[in-house]
Amino acid sequence: MKELVVISGKGGTGKTTLLASFAALAGRSVLADCDVDAPDLYLLAHPEIQSQEEFRAGNVAAINRERCTRCGRCLEVCRFEAITSDFAVEPLDCEGCGACRVVCPAEAVELRERVAGDWFRGQTKYGPMVYAQLRPAEENSGKLVVLVRKEACALTERDGINLILTDGPPGIGCPVIASLGNADLALVVTEPTPSGLHDLERALALCRHFRVPAMVCVNKFDLNPGLDKQVREFCARTRIAVTESIPFDESVPKAISQGVPLVEFNHGPARRAIEAVWEEVRGNVLREEQSKGP
Amino acid sequence: MPVAAVVGASAVAARESPGAVIAVASGKGGTGKTTVAAGMAIVTGRALLLDCDVEEPNAHLFLRPKITQTEAVTIPVPEIDRERCNLCGRCAEGCQFHAIALIGQQVLVFPELCHGCGTCALACPEDAIREVPRQVGVVECGSAGKIAFVHGRLNVGEPMATPVIRAVKSHLDSRRLTIIDAAPGTACPVVAAVKGSDFCLLVTEPTPFGLSDLRLAVEVMEKLGVPCGVVINRSGDGDEATEGFCRSKELPLLGRIPFDRRVAEAYAHGIHPVYALPEFGRQLEEILDRTLDCARGVKP
Prior knowledge:
heterodimer; A: alpha/beta; Rossmann fold; Alpha-Beta Plaits; nine-stranded mixed sheet; 10 helices; 9 strands; elongated; B: alpha/beta; 12 helices; 27% strand
């Protein structure tokens, strides 16, 4: 089984547009949406939901008012300003560490498990799909990502599919780290802007840190061909493969509005480039498979 | 072009009125948060800009501030005194983040999982745990003309952004007009960045992705109790669905920035569109004025 994860550092560079097109081109794969903050792949892949479960992770402290003697020890030790002067817990600030419980002489503090999100299994025309939604303002997105990937892996076995296509979140923090670990290849999508280049460098450093092989794809390259060239030079210096670049194409938002992957929407310039990118990426993943083979 | 050259009427208004804290956020990434946040700072000519997207900070690329001060951001992590430790395991039991474990005859610490809460030290009956600072990022402060600037940078490989965001926000000055550029998403980094703001501007784009993520961002704001309004970036075809959503939620639509390839190209060349297209600056001024009206309208 092989897993390709698409990440970007900077948001809005085209991760989901690319991934949905890959799903259409791949024929059959397991789809995993690891952007659990703001999952959007379902808007293009249209999964028919087969199961839905709550995701429980982390704690929130609860103070029993009858037992509480208002001694104030919990207030002293809480480093997250999560306890009010009235000895109530502010759930948005509480990290569930339990320091208050350790020091409470009246045993008035209880840690309760949080429902931090929901996750779904579904069927799309491209193959089975796992995705999740963190409840608003919750923590533990990294753990939810781990769950999504584990379930995606289980579906490859269940259905005898050898490829997982994973849509990652933006940034370089906890959910991105969770999306990346042990993936066979990370495709880092960037755009030819100073922000895109800055964020690309950090995303590639993250791949290096976790020893995940990376390839780079420049989207909307013709907005600044000079920077596209700079990305290529940077990647050549650091020995990272760069795919064909994708031109800016006004049909991209239109395809999203129609709810279809770009490669099923029209025959424009971006579509042709995405097909070429997919061939390169697929070749890379398959080559890895051969070299790692028995 | 000097910052002063695009300062318009709203600059005067902003200067003469009391402070307000305006956060700029979005569920979806790449909708234009930084363009709007940095642009509003530029059109006022003098604001405090806090870039709280510490995973991928970008506002400095437009403002090119002169950095005058750098601070390390640390969290306290446990260090075990092996002479005192009697291997009772209370620290590992107490830690809710699996950052400390008793394995055989050894207590192991996994610093990158540690939230710095101090529970292990509190739980230790032998006083064998000392907390030592571990650096997870930096905060840099400086200025671009009269715009005061602070941003944070999470070290690559560190999972937790919130300590760095809190460190950036410790520079908040409620007497000034403060603009906070938040990270995308709906989880703890957004909460840490936006919490306590007077108002949050949600930047969206008129696609189903933009709308889906806007809905989620609005839920976060409702939970935080921060009033919010919406800006549609790359406005054009497909605004109706977003407009309908705003009406149903009684959210003010504070502006529209029409789709314009010249904006994208200026941005791609590292030039803030405010400098490239005069009408862009005017649009941002209007958005800022409406936002400040909303923010002040809800303040006591």
